[in-house]
């Protein structure tokens, strides 16, 4: 009995191996440290279903149309390699222009002004019928390869089951 106690106290590796599979319950209410050993049944993990997305919309915006075009080709090629269905890929005809007018001199000469213009180009890609894991993998891959001067906005449309309080129509 003393050998078991000393082994239990001195060997943390044995203690962790035994403690993970067994629970210890004292035989009586006395302050004894040795108890009976019972096998613990592992609880089966619950199965979590993957999400389904009806459509995923990628909106890319940038300041250089050539870089944006190249990146959209990259996104479509990556989707085709993963077996993702690309339904649409298009660009807006004109860029969004944002103009700022400033005085050349801070204090005088109101006639002398300078205009600055920022052009933002857009491209869109629509993907259909994706699972959650495929969508996460694809989005992580294209986000890691996002070029400088470009931004990416992702909109997901998720499929969900019909709520219980709504019943389908009877015909």
UniProtKB/TrEMBL annotation:
Record-linked SUPFAM superfamilies: Ribosomal protein S10
PANTHER family xref list: MITOCHONDRIAL 28S RIBOSOMAL PROTEIN S10, SMALL RIBOSOMAL SUBUNIT PROTEIN US10M
Chief site of localization: mitochondrion
Annotated compartments: Mitochondrion
UniProt record similarity statement: Belongs to the universal ribosomal protein uS10 family.
UniProt-recorded name of the protein: Small ribosomal subunit protein uS10m
SMART domains linked to this entry: Ribosomal_S10
Chain ranges of the Small ribosomal subunit protein uS10 domain: 57-155
A GO CC term attached to the entry: mitochondrial small ribosomal subunit
Keyword vocabulary terms for this entry: Mitochondrion, Ribonucleoprotein, Ribosomal protein
One Pfam family cited in the UniProt record for this chain: Ribosomal_S10
